[in-house]
Amino acid sequence: MRKPSLHNEFAVEKVPGLTELLYENAPLEQVVRHTPVENLDLICCGTTLPNPSEILGSLKMREFLQDLRKQYEVMLFDSPPVLAVTDPSVLATLVDAVIMVVSSGQTRMDSLERSVELIQGVGAKTLGLVLNNFDLRLAYGGYYKYYRNKYYSYGYGSDYGLGDGEGREKKEKVKLE
Description:
- This protein folds into 3 domains: 1-78, no CATH class; 79-134, no CATH class; 137-177, no CATH class.
- Helices cover 34% and strands 15% of the residues.
- The chain is built from 9 helices and 6 strands, in the order αααββαααβαβααββ.
- The protein is globular and about 50 Å long.
- The strands form 3 sheets. Strands 1-2 form a two-stranded antiparallel sheet.
């Protein structure tokens, strides 16, 4: 509700949206957008407000979510970063669980730990995290590039401290490509 972008991703209008539904009593049918993705509907933020935390923490929002639970099996909410504003903490009190989204190489571990503390501090359950922008080629530093083109060997016996060497004939070479 601060920097809305999902309406652009799905090429739909952002207004009317959640704001209009809660403040102006727009009907649900008017704010729900059907997407090309099967079984995926979208409710955009609507008109942006100076303090979205107020609308997210309102009694109307709680009632709205109770109504939605009767119609939808799973609901996902996109929010800004936990450390940036209070919206995610307010929203976390209304949902069943939270999944953190972090960016590989950008999100600092201390920031992630603090975010988890804040979410759990409001009594929300944390399911886990989604790691974005992960590049496997960089995961092991320069080693990945080296190992990717080299032979690995595995086997049994004295090479692995497992006896007197009887397993040597079982050793195989595997080239990873």
